[in-house]
């Protein structure tokens, strides 16, 4: 028995020594400090995932403004100096975002590789549709459509009785359906004489499927096969099934973005119908996954701050009154243009502050060649081909030198002395170009960011106008769930109860 134990121990020791000899990376001249971790393949992944912000802070104290960590089989060089972000963004020749983004998206949604020449359209052409249909003049039509859809969902039940509901549930069900209808249109209601199609799209089912799939998103994006996550796979496929073109073409009010994507995909003979639908599933997730928790946090922080709520109510009432919309016994829906929404600087500051407190995205680029990155400090950092360059904006958002008392919600933090949007913050007495990055930056900056902020601002304006609201327990803070760090806006660990009712001048 003792001989067997010694034999097994010897084999294990040999394996460990072999791994350290052949698999552990060695730091080369000019490269930043390196941490391989002690777990094969995973490296420091578990430590990083537990609390990314504190992990990176500790490594910055130990190594300075650049260091490399092995995480789940890849090497990430973290750039901690916000003044050096621009140096990374300028490295378009040596750093690639497109390949990484498509690989991750294909892993999660199972769609085609649009870099493959067989599809005769490249990623840049498809991606260009976002800017063409979600920004500039196109945003006016989306704003109008979202305004109508929000009120359609919000005012289905006109009662003056107090209703108690989870705040996350409330904001999710309204924003999900309104956002879906704005982008993907709405189905025509069947007449009483028509048979309802057995597979008729049900919004509640779609929301349930979205939730199931979204909860598994971190594991899938990290590389865990979705086929082993049966519920998530089934939910994703159900969403994909109902986003096929044969169903979408029957919808009314399709957005220009979806119409043009459909036309483009229909011109690709090698892309089958499910392949087309998978791209729309990706679009659905992209439009909802971060907007929904951002809406929750914006409303939550506003309700916890009586001053913020009062300022928001005053601003919304002013804008509506200036547009000559009567407040008493309204029978028509509220109309707020993009310009009117833009003028609501207090609501904008509330949203920005909520985004600052809840955003934990990672901006990633992949090195296509060996190259030297010139940091703002003048230091040169050697980067290996295939490594990831990573920037974690939450380090900026929670920096006490940039934001005083950074863990506190201050509704007017992003307002200047004139009550207008504040556009400058400082670190080391230097003005920061990048001080709020919930939507990424450079080539990875979310093209739908203006639409997303507009959606949230519309939602807040309407709930402030239509409802009396109060949190059931405003003194108890809600913890943030950090398990999705790196993917965008962090959700709450649990829902929080609040009560609401239509204002007397609104209810019937």
UniProtKB/TrEMBL annotation:
It comes from the Eukaryota. The keyword Metal-binding applies. Gene3D superfamilies: Cytochrome P450. Keywords: Coiled coil, Endoplasmic reticulum, Heme, Iron, Lipid metabolism, Membrane, Metal-binding, Oxidoreductase, Steroid metabolism, Transmembrane, Transmembrane helix. Heme binds at residue 446. One of its GO terms (cellular component) is endoplasmic reticulum membrane. The chain crosses the membrane at residues 6-24. Substrate binds at residues 107, 290, 388. Its main location: endoplasmic reticulum. GO terms for molecular function: heme binding; iron ion binding; oxidoreductase activity, acting on paired donors, with incorporation or reduction of molecular oxygen; steroid hydroxylase activity. InterPro entries: CYP450_sterol_14alpha_dmase (IPR050529), Cyt_P450 (IPR001128), Cyt_P450_CYP7A1-type (IPR024204), Cyt_P450_E_grp-IV (IPR002403), Cyt_P450_sf (IPR036396). The keyword tRNA-binding does not apply. GO terms for biological process: bile acid biosynthetic process; cholesterol homeostasis. SUPFAM superfamilies: Cytochrome P450. Its cofactor is heme. Pathway: Lipid metabolism; bile acid biosynthesis. It is found in: Endoplasmic reticulum membrane. Residues 313-340 form a coiled coil. Pfam families: p450 (PF00067). Belongs to the cytochrome P450 family. This is Cytochrome P450, family 7, subfamily B, polypeptide 1. It comes from Lepisosteus oculatus.
């Amino acid at each position: 028995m003792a001989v067997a134990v010694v034999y097994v121990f010897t084999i294990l020791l040999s394996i460990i020594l072999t791994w350290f000899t052949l698999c552990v990376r060695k730091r080369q001249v000019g490269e930043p400090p390196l941490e391989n971790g002690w777990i094969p393949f995973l490296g420091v992944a578990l430590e990083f995932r537990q609390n990314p912000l504190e992990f990176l802070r500790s490594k910055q104290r130990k190594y300075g403004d650049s260091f490399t960590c092995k995480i789940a089989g890849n090497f990430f060089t973290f750039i901690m100096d916000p003044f050096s972000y621009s140096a990374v963004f300028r490295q378009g020749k040596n750093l690639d975002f497109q390949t990484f983004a498509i690989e991750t998206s294909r892993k999660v949604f199972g769609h085609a590789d649009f870099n493959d020449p067989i599809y005769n359209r490249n990623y840049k052409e498809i991606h260009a549709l976002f800017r063409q249909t979600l920004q500039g003049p196109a945003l006016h039509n989306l704003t109008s459509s979202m305004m109508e859809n929000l009120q359609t969902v919000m005012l289905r039940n006109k009662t003056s009785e107090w209703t108690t509901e989870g705040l996350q549930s409330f904001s999710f069900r309204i924003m999900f359906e309104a956002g879906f209808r704005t982008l993907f249109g709405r189905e025509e209601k069947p007449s009483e004489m028509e048979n309802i199609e057995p597979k008729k799209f049900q919004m509640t089912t779609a929301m349930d499927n979205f939730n199931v799939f979204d909860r598994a998103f971190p594991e899938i994006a990290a590389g865990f096969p979705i086929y082993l996550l049966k519920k998530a796979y089934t939910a994703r496929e159900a969403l994909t099934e109902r986003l096929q073109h044969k169903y979408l073409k029957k919808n009314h009010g399709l957005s220009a973005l979806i119409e043009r994507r459909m036309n483009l995909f229909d011109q690709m003979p090698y892309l089958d119908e499910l392949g087309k639908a998978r791209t729309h599933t990706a679009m659905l997730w992209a439009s909802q996954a971060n907007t929904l928790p951002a809406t929750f946090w914006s409303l939550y922080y506003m309700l916890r701050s009586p001053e913020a709520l009062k300022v928001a109510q005053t601003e919304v009432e002013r804008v509506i009154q200036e547009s000559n919309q009567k407040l008493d016994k309204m029978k028509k829906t509220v109309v707020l243009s993009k310009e009117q929404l833009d003028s609501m600087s207090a609501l904008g500051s509330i949203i920005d502050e909520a985004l600052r407190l809840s955003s934990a995205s990672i901006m990633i680029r992949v090195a296509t060649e060996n190259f030297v990155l010139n940091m703002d400090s003048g230091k040169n950092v050697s980067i290996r081909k295939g490594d990831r360059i990573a920037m974690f904006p939450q380090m900026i958002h929670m920096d006490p030198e940039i934001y005083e008392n950074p863990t506190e919600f201050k509704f007017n933090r992003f307002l200047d002395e004139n009550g207008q949007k504040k556009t400058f913050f400082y670190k080391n007495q230097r003005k920061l170009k990048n001080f709020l990055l919930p939507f990424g930056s450079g080539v990875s900056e979310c093209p739908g960011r203006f639409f997303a902020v507009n959606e949230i601002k519309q939602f807040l304006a309407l709930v402030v106008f239509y409802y009396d609201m109060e949190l059931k327990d405003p003194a108890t803070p809600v913890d943030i769930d950090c398990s999705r760090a790196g993917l965008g806006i962090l959700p709450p660990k649990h829902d929080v109860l609040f009560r609401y009712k239509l204002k007397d001048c609104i209810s019937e």
